[in-house]
Design brief:
Elements (H helix, E strand, L loop, with lengths): L7 H9 L10 H41 L3 E3 L2 E3 L12 H9 L13 H11 L15 H9 L5 E6 L9 H13 L3 E6 L6 H12 L3 E5 L3 H5 L4 H9 L12 H15 L1 E4 L3 E3 L9 E7 L6 E11 L4 H13 L10 H11 L8 E3 L1 H4 L17 H17 L2 E3 L2 H4 L9 H9 L7
Parallel strand pairs: 3-4, 3-6, 4-5, 8-10
Antiparallel strand pairs: 1-2, 6-9, 7-11, 8-9
Helix pairs in contact: 1-2, 10-11, 11-12
């Protein structure tokens, strides 16, 4: 490293060599010496600034690397990359992440069953979704009244997270329902959206005269008469291990089964984009994957469920949830659950349901969902986008976006998802 004090002895040495008493003293030599000294000082200062700037930059990189280490949130351990592009979020979503992180209600990592139960007992008052109050006890009366007004079809969704984290991605899914089913009625089972803030969030839809309403569900009523009733009682009494995974997700898995069993209709996850009318389908569940050789399904998924009231398969799903509940395994009480039950049923008569191929609801595997968000950069990629859009329009009822994998992806111009938004969304803002 070059520093200023290293150049002063050199400057003095040069000055000493200049004759001061000689009559032949050359003014030009003195001027050149002064210029040389000045240049050396300026040069050393420039080097010093560059090196200091490099040190600051290295410290900044080190800080960012530290910030990029994994942290715990509502979905377990996940890495946040500070240097990557942050996708567009709504104001409500930013506020929700900062103030109301749903990950706060996750049992301590690596805790024992006894410790998790103790933690849950202490936090029970914060799990509002599990409690019955004056608002939730009006659920049945509200839902009957809501569906009595010229509803051509009944749709259900769940939202168990804070209202502040509900953003444009979720609104996009709802808007796609009404684009294809303008006279549908949608109930969002959510205690947090059944609020003043929730009404403000849903206002663009209500202003468009679409029939959508958030309702705080009454779980004791929904589960009554099924095995889920006893499961809920044991959970709130501290006799069930809540598990390490966010408990918000498991009531969602159970609520969708119970609400369809009691009222019938269509259930959709909040990360599903509707492309075609779902009302032409009846008693259906979709395969997530299939064997490329024998074309048999290998896994089902519960992100889309279409069933009549009191369908026996739904009751089987509910019983399986209660008997095999495990809050420590991701997907165990959801996609894996419906797969287990249907596999055991085999060809048993009396259940009357259809398993649709992956292209119906899950045309993109969760590992490859990023391809639907990327802008085509070459002619070959543009052709692929066109081919994919053609395939979706002819063979798919909708697209599951696997929000757990894609929530941090930006919807790039010209991508498959961007084209779907612009072509099929009625009151969308471009994301």
């Amino acid at each position: 490293m070059f520093l200023l004090h290293e150049f002063f002895p050199v400057a003095i040495l040069i000055a000493e060599r200049v004759p001061t008493s000689n009559k032949m003293f050359d003014d030009r030599l003195l001027k050149r010496s002064k210029i040389a000294i000045f240049c050396l000082i300026i040069f050393s200062a420039i080097i010093f600034i560059i090196l200091c700037d490099d040190l600051i930059y290295q410290d900044s990189l080190h800080l960012q690397v530290l910030q990029a280490r994994p942290h715990r949130n509502g979905e377990g351990i996940r890495s946040t990359r500070v240097l990557t592009h942050t996708p567009l979020r709504s104001l409500q979503q930013n506020e929700g992440v900062r103030k109301e992180n749903p990950g706060a209600l996750v049992a301590p990592f690596n805790s024992t069953e006894e410790e998790r139960i103790g933690w849950f007992k202490g936090k029970l008052h914060e799990f509002k979704i599990l409690q019955s109050d004056e608002l939730s006890r009006k659920f049945h009366a509200r839902i009957v009244r809501f569906f009595s007004h010229e509803c051509e079809s009944k749709f259900f969704m769940t939202w168990e997270y804070p209202a502040g984290s509900f953003a444009e991605r979720e609104l996009l899914s709802i808007k796609s329902i009404f684009k294809v089913h303008p006279k549908a009625c949608l109930v969002i089972l959510s205690r947090t959206l059944d609020s003043i803030l929730g009404c403000r969030i849903l206002k663009p839809l209500l202003d468009g005269r679409f029939r959508v309403q958030a309702m705080a569900p009454d779980l004791p009523f929904l589960f009554k008469g099924t095995s889920a009733e006893a499961w809920l009682n044991e959970l709130v009494k501290g006799k069930k291990d809540p598990g390490e995974i966010s408990l918000f997700q498991n009531p969602s898995n159970l609520m969708r089964l119970a609400v369809l069993y009691k009222y019938g209709g269509v259930y959709l996850d909040m990360d599903f984009i509707v492309l075609k009318p779902l009302t032409v389908l009846r008693n259906c569940i979709g395969a997530q994957s299939m064997d490329s050789g024998n074309k048999n399904w290998t896994r089902l998924n519960n992100a889309v469920l279409i069933f009549d009231t009191n369908h026996p398969l739904l009751l089987r799903f509910i019983n399986e949830f209660v008997l095999t509940f495990n809050g420590n395994k991701w997907g165990h009480n959801g996609p894996y659950l419906v797969s287990r039950v249907v596999e055991r049923l085999g060809e048993r008569p009396g259940f009357n349901f259809t398993i649709l191929p992956p292209l119906a609801f899950y045309p993109a595997d969760w590992k490859k969902i990023g391809g639907l968000f990327r802008e085509p950069k070459t002619r070959g990629e543009s052709k692929w986008v066109q081919a994919k859009l053609l395939q979706l329009s002819s063979e798919s009822y909708g697209v599951h976006l696997w929000n757990k994998e894609s929530r941090n992806l930006k919807i790039e111009d010209g991508s498959v998802v961007a084209r779907l938004i612009s072509d099929r969304c009625n009151i969308c803002k471009y994301l």
